[in-house]
User: Which sequence fits this backbone?
C-alpha cells in the first residue's frame, strides 16, 4: 500500500513517515501541491494525505485538481480547528475525510483504515441503476448524472445518495445514517457531519438535490420524482 504525503513542512513529512512506515505502509512525500499532483499522475498511489495550508497551491486547490482525474482516497490535514465552512470546502473539493492537527498515531491509522474499508466496499458492483427525475445513479459504475451531465462525488457522498435512493420516501434520522454509512466508525463523527454531507450533496446535485428533503425533528428522506 503506497501512501503519498503532500506537505510543505519537512518535520510533518518525517513524523508521518515514521507513523506510517511503522504500520507497514510504503511512504512517498511531496513538498507542494504541484509536485504531489505530478507524482499521482506518473505512478500508482493508493492513498493521499494532503495538508491544507501550503505555499503556492493550497490543499483545497490541490484536492480539487486531483479529483479531476482520479478517485484516490484523500485525507486532508489542517493545523487549525476550522469552521464548518472549512470542512464543507474540503469535502466539496473531494476529500474523503478531514483531520485537525495535532493527532495521535492511533487516530491517523484508524481514519486511514476506515477510508480504505469504505473504498473497498465501494468497489463491489451491485449492478443497480436508479433514476429519480433528472437524477441517474449507477451503483456498478459508481457514476451519477443530472440531466445527462456527470456529477463528481466523494465515496461517502455517493454511498449516502445511493442509500437514500434505495430507500426513497423513507425517513432516516442522522443517527441512523451515521450507523448505516460509517458503521463501527460512527463514534468518530457527529450529527453535524451528516448535515454537512447532505448540504454538500444538495449543492453538487443542483436542482436534483431538492429531492433530498429535511423532515424537521426527524431527519432526512429522498422523495420520488
Assistant:
Amino acid at each position: 500500500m503506497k501512501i503519498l504525503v503532500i506537505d510543505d513542512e519537512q518535520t510533518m513529512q518525517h513524523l508521518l513517515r515514521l507513523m506510517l512506515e511503522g504500520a507497514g505502509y510504503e511512504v512517498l512525500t511531496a513538498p507542494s501541491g504541484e509536485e504531489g499532483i505530478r507524482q499521482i499522475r506518473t505512478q500508482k498511489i493508493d492513498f493521499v494525505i494532503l495538508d491544507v495550508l501550503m505555499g503556492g497551491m493550497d490543499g483545497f486547490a490541490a484536492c480539487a485538481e486531483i479529483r479531476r482525474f482520479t478517485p484516490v482516497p484523500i485525507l486532508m490535514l489542517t493545523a487549525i480547528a476550522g469552521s464548518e465552512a472549512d470542512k464543507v470546502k474540503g469535502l466539496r473539493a473531494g476529500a474523503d475525510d478531514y483531520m485537525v492537527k495535532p493527532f495521535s498515531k492511533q487516530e491517523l491509522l484508524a481514519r486511514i483504515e476506515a477510508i480504505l474499508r469504505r473504498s473497498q466496499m465501494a468497489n463491489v458492483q451491485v449492478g443497480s441503476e436508479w433514476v429519480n427525475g433528472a437524477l441517474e445513479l449507477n451503483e456498478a459504475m459508481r457514476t451519477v448524472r443530472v440531466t445527462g451531465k456527470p456529477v463528481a462525488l466523494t465515496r461517502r457522498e455517493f454511498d449516502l445518495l445511493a442509500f437514500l435512493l434505495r430507500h426513497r420516501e423513507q425517513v432516516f434520522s442522522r443517527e441512523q445514517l451515521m450507523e448505516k454509512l460509517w458503521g463501527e466508525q460512527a463514534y468518530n463523527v457527529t450529527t453535524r457531519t451528516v448535515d454537512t454531507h447532505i448540504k454538500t450533496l444538495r449543492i453538487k446535485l443542483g436542482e436534483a438535490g431538492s429531492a433530498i428533503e429535511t423532515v424537521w425533528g426527524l431527519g432526512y428522506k429522498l422523495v420520488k420524482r
Summary: The helical segments are 10-22, 33-42, 59-67, 84-93, 105-122, 155-166, 174-182, 191-205. The chain has two domains: 2-122, 129-222. The first strand starts at residue 2 and ends at 6. The domain at 2-122 is CATH 3.40.50.2300 (Rossmann fold).
